[in-house]
Design a protein that fits this description.
single chain, alpha/beta, globular, 3-stranded antiparallel β-sheet, 10 helices, 262 residues, Rossmann fold, 6-stranded mixed β-sheet
């Protein structure tokens, strides 16, 4: 539907907004002058050289840290505590509790919010099938593959009910075959369960598969060196996406920009 004549077009609601954000640790400047806006339910991938401040930005967005300069807004919240209440974090390591089974680990976020253990397990029971965990509800972490453990970790992150998901190299420790499978699985999961998502990764293909915008950071101090919007068919398979000319061209351009940024 088009707006009536003379009516200004409405800007999409911002999920995350950073304006001239800077953060230093003693004499070391981690990030400087970073400005980003991510719309509600947008998916942003951040890539860049090691030590460029990618994880520092996640800390700042989540409210675990505050910038030395600039402003941060997450769904309208600006204070660290309010930002933290809106964000869920999925780290590289799954951090599953070894004495809890799949249901128990997935339900942990709900229990931390005050829900009774039995009710929390009941609530996540209906989700395990969708996450490819249907026959593993009673398995302990040591009985699961690395890929299955990461699915449990993502389910636990999602059921926390937070609007913003922060993913810090979530598949970095997995073998290439498992990683490729989970990249596409996560792409599908985020289409079914819309969230405002920020992914930090060193994998350019992963950044393109999971982000509708990719930001390239410069070497420290981290600055936004380049931004690219992506638009690939939602229903295409991973193999089909990797064969698209626009995908390969953008992948090669991102790799070149990474070399320049290093």
């Amino acid at each position: 539907m088009t707006s009536s004549a003379g009516s200004p077009a409405q800007e999409p609601q911002a999920g995350i907004r950073l304006e001239e954000v800077g953060r230093a640790f003693g004499p070391t400047v981690a990030v400087s002058g970073v400005s980003l806006t991510l719309p509600l339910h947008g998916h942003l991938s951040i890539i860049g050289p090691s030590g460029c401040g990618k994880s520092t930005l996640l800390n700042i967005i989540s409210g675990l840290d505050d910038p030395d300069e600039g402003t941060v807004e997450v769904l309208g919240a600006t204070t660290p505590g309010d930002r933290l209440r809106r964000c869920a974090w999925m780290p590289q390591r799954d951090l599953l509790l070894p004495w809890r089974d799949v249901l128990g680990n997935a339900a942990l976020a709900l229990e931390n919010q005050g829900m009774h253990r039995k009710a929390a397990r009941s609530q996540v029971t209906g989700l395990v099938e969708r996450f490819g965990l249907g026959s593993f509800e009673r398995k302990l972490p040591h009985q699961l593959s690395g890929g299955m453990r990461q699915r449990v970790s993502f389910l636990r992150t999602l059921v926390a009910g937070k609007e913003v998901l922060l993913l810090d190299e979530p598949f970095g420790a997995l073998d290439s075959i498992t990683r490729a499978d989970l990249q596409f699985w996560l792409r599908s999961a985020l289409l079914e369960e819309p969230r405002t998502t920020v992914l930090v990764t060193h994998d350019v293909e992963e950044a393109l598969l999971l982000g509708d915008e990719v930001v390239v950071m410069s070497a420290r101090p981290g600055r936004v060196a380049a931004r690219y919007a992506t638009s690939f068919p939602a229903g295409a398979s991973r193999r089909e996406l990797l064969r698209l000319a626009e995908f390969t061209e953008l992948r090669d351009e991102l790799l070149a920009r990474l070399e320049e940024a290093s």
